Amino acid sequence: MDPLRLIESSLVEELKKHLPKNIKDTRNILEIRDNVLYVWDAEDYSVLTLNVAATHGKIGGGVSYQKLRLTDQPKFEIKNLLINETGTQLVLWGNLEIVLVELPKRWGKEGMFQGGKEEIFCVVYKFDNFNTMVEIRKARWHPGSTNDSHLLVLTSENTFRLYECELGSAPRLIKRWKVGRTPSSSPSKLPDFSSLGDTAVDFDFATPTLRKPEMFAGKDINKNNVVDWNQIEWPILVLRGNGEVLIVRGNVLLDNHEKPLVSGSLSMYPPADDNYGIDSCSIMCVQTTPPIVVIAMCTGKIYHAILLKEESNDVDDDDRRTWSQYGSNHSLHTPDEALYVYECVEIELGLFFTDTDKKYNCPIHLRCDKDNKSRYFCSHNAGIHMVSLPMVSQLEEYISTSEENDEDRLPMLSYQSSSQYLICRRTKHTPTDEVSSILGFGLLQEPCVLVALLHTGDVVARSVIDLHYFPKIESPEPMINSERQVSKEDFDVYIKKLLKRETSQPIIKIGSKSMSPRERLKLLYHATDIFRKEHFVRHDNVREEIGNKVRALKVTKSHQLNELSNLMEAKKELQQTAERLAERYEEIKDEQEKLARRAKEVLRLVNYKEPSITPTERAEAEELKKMEMKIKEMKIRLEELKTKSEQQAVHIENSECNERRKQIVFKGDQEKTIQNTLGHMAKDIKVLIADVKKLEEEVSM
After folding, report:
1. Spatial distance between the Cα atoms of 98 and 171, rounded to a whole number of angstroms
2. Phi-psi bin for 238: left (phi > 0), alpha (psi -120 to 50), beta?
């Protein structure tokens, strides 16, 4: 019964010594967040912390706990401990006051605060806006806060107060509004409306919605970034003692002067004469689509309802004018939403009560399981219950596979919710005034372990097994042929169905002087009868099914062993073949390397060997090179002569033109000079032509 070995830890020993006695009302001074247990020590004015996940592998209290001491000790009685989602701030509150504690950072081995110091001082901030006449009903961290620093507080004045709790600064009141009339404190013989159940007792946040959804009609808000964070609102469901549920709309986190709109009480269907009870004590909203609202009564009845849009009636706009249109934040008309109650679960507040006995009544505190929406927990003076919600999985399946006019997939009411009595603190024979309260409980996930603190200082840790919750098993790959698809149920799911029972056997923790030996014997007979009818028979069936499964697995194992031996022989043959191929491959590889080396040597000799020619051939080669040089020079000279010849031709043409224009008369000596020059040029040309012919003949040979 102690899988976390908390009884062996020194934290439980010290907590038992310091815990006040005779605490009659159920509280919540214990919390588990990120595998760390937080509990309030009233005598030492400190918060004790322990990493419960690290106690699995330690024996004899090997994991030490830490003390978070407060710089300013609170002077009021602490009844609740609340931690924000990021684990940076902690709130301690009672009936009259509330304080904010900044948590230190965690690092090092086992994720302890400030590396593992035994005592750490934490900064404390007080909320200075409360007086002695105002009581705190409920406090919750706002889920829509971007930095997880907004705290919403409900007081006995039917007033909401929203505080901004930034790290390193005192809480700041940013908004305040009423959800009803302020109770009168003057003595009078007339009954006050607060005694009639018109005061707010609890609240919770519903699923977030858009402030003005008509602005986004026809737009895909998932693909286009058209929705701002400020356009999202978290409706607040407020529960009154008479069972009425109010709804508060508006983005309260916006730092402006706009006050949220408080609408009238929600309609509840089907209608009931007593409006589903007049002693409501707690409300919880499961974050599903659509939201599931849970309302608990002090008598042990818990109503499950779905929050949906109500069918609109043909009403004129003038008839729907409300106070909110004339400066008030209260609305008179019925809201557009309504609560559709689909079932009622009645839990046992104690054991061995018959229909004729006067039942024990006490406030019930609801607690959700953040990792599993299909269940929640109830703590009260008579113990702790766990209630399963099969409607959650049905709604998720319906939304994921819903189509138009697909009425076959609507959620079925045949899958009713069920409750399990986990810890029992009272029986029929326990006196009414005897203390049996639960001071707090937390949940350690994977595997789920419930840790509860009793008023005696004892800590009870119990593994929570939900036999009504079956995980959704999806095929890793789609079936090729859907017509031949075979639905095969897992063996563990089948065993869970066989172990599913209608009643549970809780851990009974009662006083030692509250029952006589005869009553204890009767209690033993009753427990034995439950085990025989609900447990042993089912376990016998499970044992038989497990035996059949074992025999089938043995046959399968023998067959698989034969197949394994055949496969081993085939593997041996393949291994031998692979060895032969490997040897052959090595031989071929060596031969290929030899040939590559020979080819490389041949190529090297071919590239680097000098050519062998005779001296005569070498002399002729030199002569050829000289002749090539002369030919190049002659080509250059020929090009020059051609250029000069062209110039002479141009000059002759110009001369002829000039002669035509004007006859030139040369003197005798000029004519002789020109004739001599032309003769010399003709001789030079003949010599050049002879040289060219001679060179051509030499080249052609």
Report:
1. 11
2. beta
